[in-house]
Amino acid sequence: MKPSLILFDLDGTLLPMAQDTFVIGYFQLLANKLAPRGYDAKALMKAIWAGTAAMVQNDGTKSNEAAFWAKFQSILGNKVIEDRPVFEEFYAVEFQQAAKLCGFNPMAKLTVKILKENGFRLALATNPLFPAVATESRIRWAGLDPKDFILYTTYENSRWCKPSLGYYRELLQKLDCAPQDAMMVGNDVDEDMVARQLGCQVFLLTDCLINKSGAALSQFPHGSFSKLLKALDCDI
Predict the structure, then answer these.
(1) DSSP string, 88-121
(2) What's the pLDDT tens digit per position in 93-147?
(3) What's the rounded Cα separation, in Å, for the pair 205 and 209?
(4) How many other C-beta atoms are found inside a 10 Å radius of the C-beta of residue 43?
(5) 209 by DSSP, 3-state: which?
(6) Residue 199: CB atoms within 10 Å
(7) Which terminal residue of the chain, N or C, has fewer Cβ atoms less than 10 Å from its own Cβ?
């Protein structure tokens, strides 16, 4: 049965990247921004990872934003709350330099265009570890517009993270879509293909494949954007 809703991952799917390279560069930009405020780079990175872990472990009782800042503050103190406008400025300004750490695939934009023309509903199911301003920036780096999606997940509007099934349940509920009517498209076997456990259709995009568990790819429909379009009976 053809899905009516397509859920797209962003990093490594619509936006090509080597995840480790991106994270290192992003953290360096953030450390450079905050050094004049008296933050030690190593302590800052440790606190960010702890805050990220708090979001990943979030059980739906609070927003990911609240989970991050509570953990971050518990490590670095009240100073981070005072400096929060500096963090927000970072994502609006210096973070834009991280675009050069990403690739670009014109097929991503073309695929989104074709699917919209064919009547599919599109949502961006990116792991909600970033604020909206950073997510919107990464969407644009991929040659797309936030308005291309009826919803995109951010740390402000989400209470779960991948690979928790709670993340997918919450997203489908917001979009009023039954699992069997949705298809999750992503490049990470463990974080994206887990949606199949809820009954969602899945497609593994292999351009920037992440397969930490070493799962057999044959168990998932997989391939390039062209193969995805073919699977959805859409012509280029």
Answers:
(1) HHHHHTGGGGGGGGB---HHHHHHHHHHHHTT-E
(2) 999 999 999 999 999 999 999 999 999 999 999 999 999 999 999 999 999 999 9
(3) 7
(4) 11
(5) coil
(6) 13
(7) N
